[in-house]
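Quick entry, no commentary yet.
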Amino acid sequence: MQRLKTRPQFQAALAGETVARTAHFALHRQVQEAQDVPCVPAGRAHKPLFGVQDVWLGAMVPKRWARRAVTRNAIKRQIYGMAQAHAAGLPAVAHVVRLRTAFDRRQYPSAWSDALRLAVRAELEQLFGRACRAAPRQAATAPAEGARA
């Protein structure tokens, strides 16, 4: 599994479809194959955006939804850990997990309590479970559509 590092990589993945959502997270997946996306900044030679055909993953945890750095870093660690566990079920394209709402600070007052860790983990498990179930269906429907045409 490779990590997204540059802004164009994140933008390419976010431009794709939203594969799965939970109450706090959204998983975006790039539509086209990772090798096919060029990155051509002004004045530079053609260079592929994703150099290796693999599962690419990025995590977006905005300060707007997680004010404390401890919380943001811990959520990112959970995202990368859960993605590693589910990497076999994900297609070899770019993915971005985005925190889309805040966890209630009244319910989770500590920056990284056991309760918050378990809630994040359970929700990420649900998110990646949905994404892995969605991946085979898309692959199964693609050849069938081509056969009809």
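second:
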Amino acid sequence: MSVIIFIIILLVLVLVHEFGHFFTAKKFGIRVDEFGFGFPPKLFGLKKGETEYTFNLLPIGGFVKIFGENPNEENINGPNKDRSFVNKPRWQQAVVLFAGVFANFLLAWLLFSFGLMSGVPTSVGNQALGLKLRDINLVVVSVLAKSPAENAGLKIGDKIQLVKSGEDYLAEINPENLKSFVFSHRNKEIQIGYIRGSKPDTTILNIAKITPVITDNKPTMGISMDMIGTAKLPFFPALWEGLRLDWSVTKGTAIGLYRLIEDGIQGKGNLASITGPVGMVGIVGNAYQFGFVYLMSFTALISINLAIINLFPFPALDGGRLLFLLIEKIKGSRLNPKVANTANLIGFALLILLMVVITYHDVVKLL
């Protein structure tokens, strides 16, 4: 299930990104030859006007084929040169290139806003200033494999409502009090009463019977917990807070990427801090267990990451193509098409290689 959800999220994010390029190219009169759903091999296509909308076998994104995006003799000097991307004013080319990134930022804003309208799970203390949380519970945020908690049936997203051992009850349920309770009942069975799900017919108090194991001379059940409530806002305040959250996450992600690159240059880099497609499947699965609204917020985070990475000034990425436009503006003439195309091809190959390496490390971490 996690794999299917991840594929759907990736498909939506990439298609939104490509639609930004598609929409602005059409507005500027640039010919768009193909809008592909998924990646080849091609299954079938429908042609509407001059654009063919293709449906392809690999459902992991999409693409647009813009006439003149990769310069050659035909699109520079051919009969349709006036509708070629490469022959449009540089500001229009820049808008088309940036539109995909903008679409991802816009999607993240809408997802954050919709989440705040619906009620998004938020950790106590991490909510925006002045934003009140309701329905606050102690929630299981991770479960260690083969731990007493997993063996007893606890899962991510379970809301802990009752903690007892024999006749002893935990009066105020929070992470610190629960840890102290477990420590003081280290050799006894502890009963955890929890609610799973949020629908009225699923709010049944389940009981997990757990006997802690001693690890490093400390009793442990094998769970991580956090106090989580629901943040909910009316329509217009949600739009404003969603925009602020979009900007805050964008700024934080950009700073994090900068530090990651800086550490790499200084030889301090570590691939363990980078997650690829395989690792993302597991994270998506965890987000899904918290509910659909939480999954939407997580999708917004991925959308912002995708936008920022695409802005990086590296060949084959939108940021690299924008850099080429800036160089052309400074030098006052067009770059040699062969040089630009070769640079983009090499950049694409390096990106694929990097993805393979990251995926390998994701698989190794699972073994």
